[in-house]
Amino acid sequence: MLVTMGKQARSAAKALSRASTGQKNAALLSLADRLISSSDAILAANRQDVAEAETNGLSAAMIDRLTLNIPRLEGIAEDLRKVIELPDPVGEIFEPLTLPNGLRVHKQRVPLGVLAVIYEARPNVTLDVAGLALKTGNAVILRGGSETLRTNRELVAVIRGVLQECGLPEDAVQFIDDPDRARVMELLQMYEYIDMLIPRGGAALHQFCRENSRIPVITGGIGICHLFVDQSADFEAAVKVIYNAKTQRPTVCNALDTVLVHRSVAADILPQVVARLEEAGVSFRADESAMPYLIPDHLGGTLPASVTTAGPEDFDTEWLSLVLGLKVVDGIDQAIEHIAAHSTQHSDGILTHDDANARRFIAEVDSSAVYVNASTRFTDGSQLGLGAEVAISTQRLHARGPMALRELTTYKWVVQGDYTVRQ
Hints:
- The chain has 423 residues and is α/β, with parallel strands linked by helices.
- It has two domains: 2-219 and 395-416, Aldehyde Dehydrogenase, Chain A, domain 1 (3-Layer(aba) Sandwich); 225-378, Aldehyde Dehydrogenase, Chain A, domain 2, CATH 3.40.309.
- It has 13 helices and 16 strands.
- It has helices at residues 2-16, 21-37, 39-55, 60-66, 70-85, 124-135, 149-165, 182-188, 203-212, 235-247, 263-278, 332-342, 355-364, and strands spanning 93-98, 104-111, 114-119, 139-143, 173-175, 196-200, 225-229, 256-262, 283-286, 307-309, 323-329, 347-351, 369-372, 391-393, 401-403, 409-416.
- The strands form four sheets. A seven-stranded parallel beta sheet has the order 10-9-11-8-7-12-13, with helices on both faces. A four-stranded parallel beta sheet has the order 5-4-3-6, with helices on both faces.
- Strand 7, helix 10 and strand 8 form a beta-alpha-beta unit.
- The longest helix has 17 residues, at 21-37.
- The chain is globular and about 80 Å long.
- The model has no long low-confidence stretch (mean pLDDT 93).
């Protein structure tokens, strides 16, 4: 079955690579509109998936990622419309030069070809990937999790229907409608038909794909994210940023996991952080270094109920929930050392008014997105002006950070001469 899908995808990719920007944008606009007009069927299927997930005891974070509603569908449709407005990278010419022998040389962007994306729980990924692949002339084979099977069936039916109506190959988007995990291993061997594999899930899925794939793999999306509050920060503003980074949507990969605070200001800011965030239901895992600053005088030497002592693995945990780690450090050296030891190179930031500290943090923190005085929640294709994303890459090769249109292309060298021969 999958080999047939691979052959169909390869053929569709060739046809789609010839589509004009106008054709692709028209299909994206139709897809955005169709999502809303088909919302009854999509949401009915999603409710069944959510009910089954609750029965099976999936975590609250997974259920939140799985859930669709009208506002979320409208947000996805709006992201697709933003992709329409972005320049089409396919065919872009860059780095032109003329050599001394008269050869005219440039690089020209072309689609990657066929993508395979393995993901869990989040049906919005189905649409983000399909939309970006369509705009960049790539075919895609999707393998969503069993927990979202019904929702994905509806979404892919909508996508393929739109492609067909717009005169584009419907096999440009295909879906593995089989929850058997054996299909994943089969997919990982299809190097003849698939050019790039993107797993979006937990560490176990990433490791499995890296160890077993015969296809180039782009990994990312696991975020243990930090904010360091240095001694020069505006405390009131810093608490607002921390609150947003932790509570705005705690179940996603760019939500905040750990706050590091300079010792000289810990007594001022840590009680403010706890008081503000516990109102939103946040509980805290505090390092021993933070404990002396978390015992308010009026409580007679006892910790707030929301605070417990951090365990040995807590600073290596992506919480995906209303839990926040707290640690006090002696300065920027210790902050950078802690981030280097515990970060997943996703999103890490500093809250500061010290330009030298900001520059040093940017230079020395090796993450896909590095922030100065902003919430980590902005590591997102839509928020960073990319329309959407297929993944957040935390590795170094090919692409890093949110992967959107340009990251789904490669390039060819174009060399033009006048019957030129090499001497």
